[in-house]
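Cross-check.
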Amino acid sequence: MIGMINRGDDTVEFYAAARQSSLYRHPPVRQKLEYLKDGRVFLDGVAVHEQPTTGQMWHDLISKILAMRMMKIDAMENGSFLL
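Predicted model, tokenized:
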């Protein structure tokens, strides 16, 4: 486009069309967050926090009970009854 005012003694001014920005060429992909009625959270159809299996929970419980019993037995043998 030629400038609005061009006199004979002035140089001719040309303006380029505005370029499109590359910042917004590809819109960001949004993740889909879902909440189920039981409180579980899913992000794009995948559980965010995996629930441990019942076998794993029983294993953890028994391990903790055995560890506490061994600590109590050790404390009784050493004469310190802190537990």
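Residues 54-78 form the longest helix (25 residues). Helices lie at 54-78. Passed to J.P. for a second look.
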